[in-house]
Specification:
This protein has one helix spanning 2-17; strands spanning 34-42, 48-55, 58-65, 67-74, 76-83, 90-96, 99-106, 112-119, 124-130. By secondary structure, it is mainly beta. The chain has one domain (32-130): Lipoxygenase-1 (Sandwich), CATH 2.60.60. The strands form 2 sheets. Strands 3-2-5-8-9 form a 5-stranded antiparallel sheet, with no helix packed on it. It is elongated. The termini are far apart.
Amino acid sequence: MKPITSRLILVVATILAGCSTTSPPPDSAGAASGDFVAAVACSDPSMKFTGTIVQDGHSAEVSGVGSGTFHAAGHQIAFSFKKTAADGRISFSVTKAGQCLGSSATESKFGGVRGEISHHWVVTKECFSTF
């Protein structure tokens, strides 16, 4: 009976050797979330825009005319704003505690602007673009 038991243990060990678990990516557990302010401005005060703000996976639709200020808090923030008119310029910037983290602007026909922020223990990463 011993040879069967040792073979069974060897088979199970071989199968489990191919299995592995990966650690989740480092997160910001315990780190204070960032408080961010996005300021949107259009070249024409009557130009309408729409947008989406995603805060730690929770999405909210927003809109405005001419300009607007939007607040967000969290560790993973994404701002996206699009003009609804073909002509004109839309721009936006994001600040944290009064310090500008970045900005983006476009005059593309029905174009938009986007910014993503990852706020972790020792680093805040930003990425701004147009579409």
